[in-house]
Write a structure and sequence with these properties.
homotetramer; about 230 residues; alpha/beta; eight-stranded parallel sheet; 10 helices; about 40% helix; globular
Chain lengths: ~230, ~230, ~230, ~230
């Protein structure tokens, strides 16, 4: 588990972008793998469910799912069960991304389920109060992402630094081991280095990498900026 | 498309059962492939998202997804996008299963999306009125499944024959080409032959196969009963 | 029931606007009552749940709920049960508004429930195909509202006349008695008269009335335009 | 606010039971009002949205809503807006009842909204971890209700005393002012007194009162058992 959580960490959420689907998911993951190996910075990729097996086969860097449902094995159709995700070779999962929010009881259940299955849990939050509430559930990673900045290119670390520092302050009161990330609008290397200076241990990014003309170059820029 | 829709058809919904997850999904799909080839009956398997690629690689029978979200490629996290599903080699999808019900506008959108992507659409319904409403949306397959019978071992074809015959009557008034199936509680070969005698062109099954001690034998029994 | 459905009809959805909440809901409903009596045009008001009793006490025109849940009386918290709605004096309900969409099985259930409770059912739809599917469920009213025009001030009757005429054509193939309305962007008397000329029997409006500087004057303008 | 929160407190959730709808909601609320005045125990009633105005008019005891949506005034249909609820005379609201669960971000938003509107917020939780997470959001009341016991007549205070005491322990680490209640299965006066002995400041009840043959007698029994 330790290796999966090595910090600083850059988690790349592939979402359902055309540029990160199917064969393109594998290509992009390989670029992340290369940038990670060259820089020593931990880069995690989170492709779509249908691509998890192939991406996990293709790269050595950690692969996360984008979501897991709060269900045991059984009579559930069209849902995402933890054991099925685990068997693809995935080592962790995003939980409660602002584009896939969960009921509170389900967040608690999926964090617990992840712990039982030895999956790294990364819970996304929208503000410092919610981050503090989540801290109590003992996820491995908490990532603060103000929804209004997602996909804008306006970086949370610059536009709302206090959302980040307040999250760190409130979380640390009750939880001294969770990795804290920030996300939303991260599009330049400087956004990453500012995020780290604010006290985070990395970033959660998506369009900044996936929609970049040259994702490898941006991945390198982000990774280089994460080393200080 | 024609081959995918060859009737009679038996669709096996793998749900998220432990017995049909990961490597076991592949084993089970291979048994279905074998039973299909031996009998000439069209058997379709619908594994979990994470297993679609590997199952589609492993077998020649049609593979369906269990669900697709009503979204284009883009900024959606933890959702199931049609292009990503298509790229796994899948040829169709279940839509609106009673364990994964959709808003009406989303059913219409996913049926339309499936048509555009050349994916077979199989919309599940809970009663004859809903079947008739769905008929207008022109899906390739309509499967009536009274929710109260799902997983009970009490077959719809025996317990509620009128739900099946009323569905056929109402659907045929407005749609003469959709394949009509029934599901819920199908657990014996006789349940399949009764379903066909009622006028359906096949069945949608899950636990009857997946949880069987010897799934291959039951698959053969179902397929043999579908030939008359 | 007949009186409630007298056409042409103008249904005013109060939504949760500040201008149509609490005491202001009563004032606005009284203006609608006055405009209806003066013109003879059937005007229906649909206030929030919390205001239904008071509005139904205050006016003689028909009052609709904005939504009903597909539940019987029982152990449900924070939901809207048909009997409770009925007891306020309400005579009908909106169903599946684009801001409160339902699963297909629930639309069918609420339309049926409304029929049992002698409540007028008005199902909202987003396009002609969905309208046609809904037509089979036999609601009293079908209202087509392209979601992208809602609240824009760009009237459906002018911007997408074919969405309206296609809806009428498709619905009438299978249902010759449902009242057909259109909505979204209706803000001038002319939008109403154009809607009627397209073949509808009225309109579903919201911000055009509720957010108007002088709602009574606009109500009169709409009602006058509905008389030809 | 203080009076509304006077402890011990018994909150009666009317749900959507036939026995607590419309005129019967008023009758039941009056019985609660009587029992409260006779015993001095704070009894709160939580009727359906449609009954809030009439109940708040009819009684002097505090009235709560069963739910509020995380929305501002505006273009929302069929939802429950805080200002509309407030204007009925309601002084508080249940939030996240197990039959009406919310996304975490929405719980946080509704607790904050309640504070702004001077409404008492009572957040329901399903286990001690979730209770602790909620404690950070600073609601006025936290009520632990193991969902598997709701409506069973098997009281949480007797069947799962550790769920109650663990909740108290965890909540008090971070929040020393929230009122802590327990609910689920409370059906005898003894269930109430045991709940208080475990350290709670009251109970959240529903069917135990609403479905009782003689609700007034049970209300008196509960209230008497709350005085020690």
């Amino acid at each position: 588990m330790k290796a999966k959580l090595q910090t600083p960490v850059i988690i790349v959420n592939f979402k359902t972008y055309a540029e990160s689907t199917g064969n393109k998911a594998i290509e992009l993951a390989k670029k992340a793998d290369k940038a990670s190996k060259e820089t020593g910075v931990n880069i995690v990729v989170a492709p779509q469910f249908t691509d998890l097996w192939r991406v996990a086969e293709a790269v050595e860097i950690p692969v996360f799912a984008q979501h897991i449902d709060a269900i045991p094995p059984g009579a559930f159709t069209g849902q995402v069960q933890a054991d099925a995700v685990k068997e693809t070779g995935v080592v962790g999962t995003l939980i409660n991304h602002s584009e896939r929010q969960l009921k509170l009881a389900d967040i608690e259940a999926v964090v617990r389920l992840s712990r039982e299955k030895d999956l790294v849990s990364c819970v996304c939050t929208n503000n410092p109060s919610v981050s503090a509430a989540v801290a109590y559930l003992q996820p491995d990673i908490i990532s603060i992402e103000p929804p209004e900045l997602i996909g804008t290119g306006v970086a949370v670390s610059k536009a709302q630094p206090e959302a980040v520092t307040d999250t760190i302050k409130l979380v640390r009161k009750v939880n001294d081991h969770a990795v804290i990330l920030c996300g939303a609008g991260i599009s330049h290397g400087e956004d990453v280095s500012v995020a780290l200076k604010l006290g985070t241990q990395g970033v959660l990014v998506a369009s900044g990498i996936v929609k970049a003309k040259d994702p490898y170059t941006v991945l390198r820029e982000f990774a280089d900026s994460a080393i200080i």
